[in-house]
């Protein structure tokens, strides 16, 4: 049913909590797991960039997640990309023929403005496959 599962992750608590759901689904269906982290394109108008989302931090995050899944007997591939998170997640899902995207929800959709701006909402609207949002 879910041959390929895409798990976009970042440094958030919600992404860490979604990892349990990812592990359960991947083990149950014997899915291929692809971990994705997106480094946002630098904004020239922004005074500083977030050090937690530097390419080095993202590489370390992906290695840590891969090790976490490995401890549970799950092999995971990793992809690191630069770009707009929502569009990049959907592009990668299309490239790898993902059958499911699983992602944590940061709860930004609690306000009308947050609902239209959240990565989760954009991915849900643009995704080429089903999206499972873990609250």
TrEMBL record:
<protein>
    <submittedName>
        <fullName>Universal stress protein</fullName>
    </submittedName>
</protein>
<feature type="domain" description="UspA">
    <location>
        <begin position="1"/>
        <end position="135"/>
    </location>
</feature>
<dbReference type="InterPro" id="IPR006015">
    <property type="entry name" value="Universal_stress_UspA"/>
</dbReference>
<dbReference type="Pfam" id="PF00582">
    <property type="entry name" value="Usp"/>
</dbReference>
<dbReference type="InterPro" id="IPR014729">
    <property type="entry name" value="Rossmann-like_a/b/a_fold"/>
</dbReference>
<dbReference type="InterPro" id="IPR006016">
    <property type="entry name" value="UspA"/>
</dbReference>
<comment type="similarity">
    <text>Belongs to the universal stress protein A family.</text>
</comment>
């Amino acid at each position: 049913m879910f041959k390929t599962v895409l798990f976009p992750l970042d440094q958030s608590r919600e992404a860490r909590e979604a990892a349990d759901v990812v592990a359960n689904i991947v083990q149950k269906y014997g899915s291929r797991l692809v971990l994705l982290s997106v480094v946002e394109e630098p904004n020239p108008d922004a005074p500083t960039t977030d050090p937690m989302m530097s390419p080095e931090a993202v590489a370390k995050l992906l290695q840590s997640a891969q090790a976490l899944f490995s401890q549970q007997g799950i092999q995971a591939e990793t992809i690191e990309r630069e770009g707009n998170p929502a569009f990049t997640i959907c592009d990668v899902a299309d490239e790898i023929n993902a059958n499911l995207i699983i992602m944590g929800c940061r709860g930004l959709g609690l306000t009308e403005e947050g609902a239209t701006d959240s990565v989760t909402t954009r991915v849900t609207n643009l995704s080429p496959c089903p999206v499972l949002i873990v609250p």
